[in-house]
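Action item from last meeting closed. Structure (376 res):
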């Protein structure tokens, strides 16, 4: 599922959890990384307990080629809700060259290889939160500073630290600067989702604006066709989109909504809109045109929309979906549900569906989290 992270608009930022694999895809090629050499340090599991001293191994990376030893600034790139496989060669490396900065990057707890537990049942997810993650960053920042000082035989020296993040990690970046102003000189919070919105209907509305009237009308017509067809022959319409494995209609409709959304979120609207508007003009079958787009562009990661898959508690490459849903259900919401009027996505993508999902995914072993969800 394409868990999306790199967005252009605040509105477009957080997908339900569907964001991660996509980030990952942007940087799979080794040559696009400055380093993929993992380093480890021992992190506190629960920053808010005075008696629990358990630790877990947290993965991080450093890139020192441009560092003005020993006093250059340190850029801390915050990894968000996905496996953090290295330091990508992006604009921050341009900045690092310019300022003689060291680049370091910390994997977010639970994601990738930084999981404190071997199994991800709800009870074990209790330490997964943005609040814990912020303290992870603070502890790491001090640990790294001390290591650097030790390396240079000095004490009580502070380099200038800056934090960087995008989307959820953009929010962490902003919050980090607010919460720990003494630890960091500045924060770049790119497309940062700093406002947790429960009924995030603005997301769908922004898609309508971004799509423009013709493409929006085509997408709405498709939604209507799918909504009708799913009542009479759900299996056939799912098969048409290569999504037979999504047994639950709500999962399927969420998948279809995201399939369209990501074209706008990741800056490739024409790939979606041109064939749809064309099909509409020439009287071709709109459903077929959309199905063809979805099959060509949005098939990978389809299982991350599948509740059966999201329920799985074993640690795997695909765990990110479950982990992000947990954060969504307990903290940040951003439920991208249909607005009551003029929606693009199906009106069946509603709070009932996402609440149900929260319940199904996390209730089984522990009810507390779900209560939090409903209260939040
Ligand atoms: C982390 O803790 C383990 C177990 O106590 C220890 O063996 C290891 O050396 C520690 N690693 C670091 C980097 O301190
Ligand atoms: C730090 O001190 C040790 C022992 O005095 C010395 O061997 C080493 O070269 C020093 N390192 C630096 C970077 O000055
Ligand atoms: C969200 O929308 C639902 C109806 O879909 C409504 O019952 C609920 O009160 C709304 N919650 C918030 C926090 O706005
Ligand atoms: C619903 O949306 C349509 C199309 O944007 C608009 O013309 C209409 O005024 C809206 N109705 C309400 C009740 O907001």
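Sequence:
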């Amino acid at each position: 599922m394409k868990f999306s992270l790199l967005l252009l608009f605040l509105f477009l930022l957080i997908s339900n959890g569907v964001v991660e694999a996509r980030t990952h895809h942007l940087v799979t090629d080794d040559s696009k990384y400055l380093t993929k050499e993992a380093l480890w340090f021992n992190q506190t599991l629960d920053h808010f307990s005075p008696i629990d001293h358990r630790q877990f191994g947290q993965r991080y990376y450093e890139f020192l080629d441009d560092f003005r030893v020993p006093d250059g600034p340190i850029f801390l790139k915050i990894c968000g809700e996905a496996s953090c496989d290295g330091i990508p060669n992006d604009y921050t490396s341009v900045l690092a060259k310019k300022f003689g900065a060291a680049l370091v990057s910390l994997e977010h707890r639970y994601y990738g290889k930084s999981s404190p537990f071997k199994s991800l049942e709800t009870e074990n997810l209790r330490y997964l939160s943005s609040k814990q993650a912020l303290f992870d960053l603070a502890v790491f920042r001090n640990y790294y500073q001390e290591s650097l000082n030790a390396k240079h035989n000095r004490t009580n020296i502070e380099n200038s630290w800056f934090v960087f993040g995008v989307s959820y990690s953009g929010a962490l970046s902003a919050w980090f600067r607010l919460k720990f102003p003494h630890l960091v000189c500045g924060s770049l919070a790119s497309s940062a989702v700093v406002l947790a919105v429960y009924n995030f209907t603005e997301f769908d509305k922004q898609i309508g604006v971004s799509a423009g009237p013709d493409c929006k009308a085509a997408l709405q017509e498709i939604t209507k066709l799918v909504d009708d067809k799913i009542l009479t022959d759900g299996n056939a319409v799912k098969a048409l989109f290569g999504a037979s494995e999504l047994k639950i209609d709500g999962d399927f409709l969420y998948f279809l909504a995201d399939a369209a959304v990501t074209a706008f979120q990741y800056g490739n609207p024409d790939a979606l809109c041109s064939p749809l508007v064309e099909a509409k003009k020439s009287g071709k079958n709109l459903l077929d045109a959309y199905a063809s787009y979805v099959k060509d562009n949005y098939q990978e990661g389809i299982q991350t929309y599948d509740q059966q898959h999201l329920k799985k508690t074993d640690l795997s490459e695909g765990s990110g979906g479950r982990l992000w849903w947990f954060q969504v259900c307990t903290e940040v919401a951003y439920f991208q549900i249909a607005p009551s009027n003029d929606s693009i996505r199906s009106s069946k993508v509603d709070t009932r569906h996402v609440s149900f999902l929260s319940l199904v995914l996390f209730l089984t072993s522990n009810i507390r989290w779900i209560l939090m969800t409903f209260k939040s």
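Note appended to the action item: The first strand starts at residue 33 and ends at 35.
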